[in-house]
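Data card: per-record layout.
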Amino acid sequence: MKSEISASQARRFALTAQGFNALSRDKNVISTHIRNVIDQLGLLQIDSVNVLVRAQYVPVFSRLGFYDRSALDALIAGRPRRYFEYWGHEASILPVDCHPLLRWRMADAYQGKGIWRQLEVYAGEKRGEADALLERIRAEGPLAASDVAGSRAQKGMWVWSGAKHALEWLFWAGRITATHRRGSFERVYDLPERVLPQAILQLPTPDQTDAKRALLARSARALGIATADELRDYYRIPVKEARLPFEQLVEEGTVIPVLVRGWKQQAYLHKDARAGRRVGGAALLSPFDPLIWHRARTERLFDFRYRLEIYTPAHKREHGYYVLPFLLDGALVARVDLKADRQNSTLIVRRLHMEPNAPPHTIEMLMNELRMMALWLDLTDIVVPEISSASRIQTN
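The structure for this 396-residue chain is written out next.
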């Protein structure tokens, strides 16, 4: 007989697994704390949007509070490498011990499977162009797309040159890896053996089913409680390919079927998950935070419908361009559309929406969080036009 838990218990399992139980954000943050956050989450998603700050920095801030962003950069680029960049959920920063578990994805990409359509040609008729770039990297060292002659002819974030397409296929196929990013967030590529620890590269490549079972187990640990689709989605494992390894996880007891009152979907609890009793505290959440990136899960856990509206025409946006949900005492109670005006050293709240369940102290707690964020981003002012027509607040 399956055990049954309440929706509020499920929410506590999820918050605890994601590092929001007994949230304490007033300590002196060191690299060990940052490393613990990444290891607990299993990855940090990367995104090119920089209207506030790059996406990978915010989940650490949400859980630890004020920290030096350069400490995260140093941790990622440090030697020996503890982390590498690859396709996890989307583009992600991942622990290096995840590399063997994702080699099946690299092998698929090398065969032209599971990749963007515009890259498939480099697995076939244009393989020679990609191989030539690979040999250039081998001979000359790290290379970015902009270093290739003729690659600057086209403009636009997603208008890529042939060299960029070829390099991205090589990256997806695991023939090259990202050594760092430069300028406007451009990837610089090098050979894996010159970037990643030899001890990791020499690890045997697991059977695909074993690798996907290990990834699903990491998903379950990071989420605490989840549906099968949410576990699969964490590392973007295709539906058909997730079925057998998932059944094996259930059979071995790594995930335990449970019923959550009010949920239509079957839930699964990681065997080590704990429902923390203290879910107090406040945090602004990135749109790419793993607590909320699966939108149906966010709605099920928090009764909070959330959509990223970056690609929605401005006149059709309901809440704004870059909206961060506000977590307060275990509930999502507000959302703010934020922009960092770096030229004027100002954090701008372009729009603010309160949820019906927001408690009376929400604004006070939100303003405290905004002050902390502004200080963290080296911004001296906060402008909140939705609250007051003369609401310029200094952070110092």
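Known properties of this structure: Residues 81 and 249 are 30 Å apart (CA to CA). The first helix runs from residue 7 to 17.

See the next section for split statistics.
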